[in-house]
């Protein structure tokens, strides 16, 4: 399986492409701010044809470029229904004072938006991706999990980072909910590779052993990384 990515825009949000191999169809995950040019270069490098865009949640740093990417390739976007309204109204994901900053930004839904369901298995581009609803960072946060060789890869969005977890102080955030979501995610095998929405990759085993916010899956104070 081919997985490649890059940090997009000022938020440094990881945008990923996933394909069975070079020269085949692929899916795009979380095309953030100003992602189009770098994404196009990555697709050309690996000779890939996107068939869908998958969104781990609706915050603007993850969906900024979804409409132009989908429009240029005539492909659908997939998002959980709890976050769908953020595609066209990103200010809803921020407190009122921050929302004013994005008030003049005009985003729109792609022409074809499809809704994700917990436990669904998406068969796209020769891949099988299991959708798991993991609310807490936002109401509609999801992860995508796919097998690779004898293990699996988890696209975690802003649920889990290397050494940290997603913030819950923005509208739609819920600290108790993210703890429940993390508890479910930590049942995955230690060797599961975690590709987060920000920062470097990690593994479930490493985070279980070293992440200070996962002690007894009950951190004492929520972090403020990511959007």
From TrEMBL:
* Keywords (A to Z) from UniProt: Hydrolase, Metal-binding, Zinc
So which cofactors does this thing need? Zn(2+)
Leader sequence range is none
Keyword field contains Zinc: yes
| Record-linked InterPro entries | MBL_Glyoxalase_II, Metallo-B-lactamas, RibonucZ/Hydroxyglut_hydro
Give all residue intervals belonging to the Metallo-beta-lactamase domain.
Answer: 12-198
Q: One MF term from GO for this chain? A: metal ion binding
Q: What is this protein called?
A: Glyoxylase, beta-lactamase superfamily II
Question: Which organism was this protein described from?
Answer: Microbispora rosea
